Amino acid sequence: MITTAQFNDLVKNAKVEWRDGYDMVKPVARELYDVYSTEEMTSEHSQIDNPGFAHRKQQGDRYTIGSPRQGYSITLSQSRIGLMEEVTWEMRKYDKYREIFKKMKGLGESTAQRMELDLTHQLTFGATATSYTNMDGETVYTTTGDGLGIFSTVHKITGSSATFSNKLTAAFSRAALEEAEGLFTQMINNNGVKVVVTPNTIITGDDPATVNAVKEFMKSQSAPDTANGATNVYAGKYRHLILPYLATTNTGAYDSTKAGYWFLADTNHSDAILEISENPNFTAPSVGGNGEDFETDGWKFKSSASYDYGFLDPKFIVGSVATS
Question: Could you tell me which of 288, 274, 286, 301 has the C-alpha nearest to residue 38?
Fold first, then answer.
């Protein structure tokens, strides 16, 4: 039987299993975010553009004073996630180590999976809507600072009535990729001045047809969709990031209608923000203390984290809601 004398060893091994479970889930979606630590419950993030091009200065004239343009802002509020498992008296009585450590590993996976799901769903639902209801019944907003969905054909700027687009509807192909690249060349800041964004990453879900289309395109020796012998200018131009939870519902179930979604992004940016006030954490009980249930004799272990996230400015990414 696992006794209180063996409790410390059980906790040490349980934490190892929790960490193994957490590390099994690769933090892919997190790569799209600028990650901060915070001690604030609520924080505001604002955008300000540089004053634009330098002006000519004639002999004896004063320098032109720049006019930086204030952009939009977003507010983030921390929210906590967590899950708990119980090591029952029967598990301890009959030395069910394998079953116990499977529970601990599952706790680690659950926290990492939820964070990946949340971060991914900004793309999944931001592609077509300004909000969605998550698995806990909460409203999650998928808007940028201008109040529009992350992907829109009429994103606004503060300096004029001009707009720009970061959304298309074509399935992945050379023509669609070039259309996405073209949208990057038309991005403007809040002064209406063209901004230079250099995309470096193609993002898809794990739909085999879409994944293979991208891989074949990127690794072809000759130019895709053209006669043999032509150079493939896309070879090595982009990396391919696969988000396994992209084509899912708000509860994480597979959703075939989103299988063809794909995105082109510049990951060297600070416009998608992830603030973490509690890094994923494993908490064990103390014998006779905080996690021991008097009525059941169970020992309770939990995994938790606290964070919030959002998109301030959409100019670093272009997305397609292709359904096939």
Answer: 274
Bridge partners of 201, per DSSP, are: 239, 265
pLDDT in tens, 232-254: 888 889 999 999 999 999 999 99
Helix (H) or strand (E) holding 179, with range, is: helix 174-184
Q: What share of the chain is helix, strand, coil (3-state, %, to 5)?
A: 25, 30, 45
Report d(CA 324, CA 308) in Å as an integer: 32
Output the six-digit token pair for 259.
Answer: 């299988």
Q: Which residues pair with 45 in a beta bridge?
A: 74
CB 151 within 8 A of CB 319: yes
Backbone angles phi, psi at 119, to 5 degrees: -65, -35
The 10s digit of each residue's pLDDT in 146-173 is: 999 999 999 999 999 999 999 999 999 9
Beta-strand runs (E) in 145-185 = 155-156, 163-164, 167-168
Q: Where are the extended beta strands (E) located within the chain?
A: 34-37, 42-49, 69-77, 79-87, 131-133, 139-141, 155-156, 163-164, 167-168, 201-204, 239-242, 262-265, 272-283, 299-311, 317-320
Contact 22/280 with Cβ under 8 angstroms? Answer: yes
